[in-house]
Amino acid sequence: MTSEQKRWSLMHVISIMLTFKMVSFEVKGDPQVPCYFIFGDSLVDNGNNNGIASLARANYLPYGIDFPDGPTGRFSNGKTVVDTVTELLGFDAYIPPYANARGRDILSGVNYASAAAGIRDETGQQLGARISFGGQVNNYKNTVSQVVDILGDEDSAANYLRQCIYSVGLGSNDYLNNYFMPNYYQTSRQYTPEQYASVLIQQYSELIRELYNYGARKFVLNGIGQIGCSPSALAQNSPDGSTCVEKINSANKLFNNQLVSLVNNFNNDLQDAKFIYINNYDIFQDLINSPQSYGFTVTNAGCCGVGRNNGQITCLPGQTPCQNRDEHLFWDAFHPTEAANVIVGRRSYRAQSSSDAYPIDISRLVQL
Questions:
Q1: Which domain of life is it from (predicted)?
Q2: How far apart are CA 272 and CA 162, in angstroms?
Q3: Entry pTM
């Protein structure tokens, strides 16, 4: 080969490489928002409980059996709902847990969620240590101080944080590990379901306003799913093991209805912010009503666990789970499989039904 041919060949290779690089960059692009902050419980905890004295931990197999990094603390066989949303928002890595977030990594967001946590501080205390919603908000305030230090001043931090998505998903444990656990808690004797929903929403509202005061402007408020249809509820309170427990679901709907009203109130009162509601209750209703449409064959039993329909307790360390995990709606007594989480995450990001998100979905929220 002549020197001229070699030079042309080299230039051709470089041209192809640059083209591929440009195509790759255009396909991936930057995330749709600079950061994603997550507040919640075991449905979205990705490792914050690993290092605390809690029975609510999932940093062992078979949890994470289908996750690339193995057991991380996620209460699923694989991805959670927020992992799916993280991918759809265009991030190239999952949002780190507060327990591990360091340095400039916090600029892409932080996951503060803690298994067994509730809106009320005492919720989940029978399971040991956990970080309540109030504690998570305090941790976020600490993050904001770090963001100010990294970006140089409060104005720069405020302009940065106002572009980010803030996902809040708490309340399930305030029912499962509080109100409907009368042997441990007084709340069911102190409040009617209507009163309890109002008490929860009041405290929830105060903490949301704290987030607003510390820079949050784009809020995703997640409704409670159908707790009364979980394998745990079915094992303990369903007469036939498959009929959802109405008293639990009715209480959840009271909370969700007030959460929708809260979204409306905040959107009216805080004109420089935007709040949306994700209707997890009806999304799960759809999965339960039409499981075959989504590839599910088992909706009333966990893929692993112990007791009736694997519904009495969560997966034991080293336990062998079912093989057909993508056909199960629930992974363990309380938590959905990755297959279900992916569906919920996709419908949260881009509504499949007009009732999935109110007044808009996440894909439209990021554009504001």
A1: Eukaryota
A2: 9
A3: 0.91
Distance, in Å, from the CA atom of 38 to the CA atom of 44, rounded to the nearest integer, reads 8
**Whether pLDDT at 14 is above 60:** no
Query: Number of structural domains, the chain?
Result: 1
How many Å separate Cα 127 from the centre of its chain?
20
| Contact (CB, 8 A) for 82 and 43 | no
Which pLDDT band, with edges at 50, 70 and 90, does 28 fall under? low
Pairwise CA distance, residues 337 & 329, whole Å: 6
Q: Is residue 78 part of a domain?
A: yes
Q: How confident is the model at residue 342 (pLDDT cuts 50, 70, 90)?
A: very high
For residue 71, what is the domain's CATH number? Answer: 3.40.50.1110
When the pLDDT of each residue in the chain is averaged and rounded to a whole number, the result is: 92
Is residue 244 assigned to a domain? yes
C-alpha dist (Å) from residue 156 to 79, 91, 160, 219: 33, 22, 6, 20
Just list the catalytic residues.
42, 332, 335
